[in-house]
Amino acid sequence: MDIFVIPLSGVNVLRYIGGDAEEILQMSARSIESSADAVDLRILRILQEDGRITNQELASRAGLSPAACFDRVKRLRASGVIVGYTALLDPAKLGQALLIFVEVVLDRTTDDVFTAFAAQVGDIPEVLECHMVAGGFDYLLKVRVADMAAYRRFLGEILTSIPGVRETRTYAVLEEVKATTRLPI
What we know:
Shape: elongated
Largest sheet: 4 strands, antiparallel
CATH superfamily of the largest domain: Lrp/AsnC effector binding domain/regulation of amino acid metabolism (RAM) domain
Order of helices and strands: EEHHHEHEEHE
Helix content: 25-40%
Structural class: alpha+beta
Radius of gyration: 25 Å
CATH class of the largest domain: Alpha Beta
Oligomer: single chain
CATH architecture of the largest domain: 2-Layer Sandwich
Number of strands: 6
């Protein structure tokens, strides 16, 4: 069976000579899926730049009709690819200028200690991110506070009071060279 894919104004047209029609339809479906993925990625890139863009403008920039664009965004939300929308704030203008990374070593590496630590850290507003890591320590925290005095209070009164915390190492950020929420898609 010979199959030719002929691109016409961004649309692939299949032309075949002989062969099984079912196989041709499956190949066409795979082609449509891959082009849908490319369109979805284009939509996601645009939304990462501007999460407040109108559907009309998003559709225009993505090369879709507004209805088709709305359906795609709805599907991306329903499938969990888009998990939410948020406003990005300037920490310094809100009295949270100091960014700190903290390595945390626990006294035991058991499921109950991990679970208890994660639950308590999840309730601490100064902790922006908490990552369990492999290597010389157990967790890496990203913490925002007003200044070094506020961090000292956070460390002494909050972080080291969590049961199971054996040791911490603090890294104060001198300059944020790059900070983004955009995924490289």
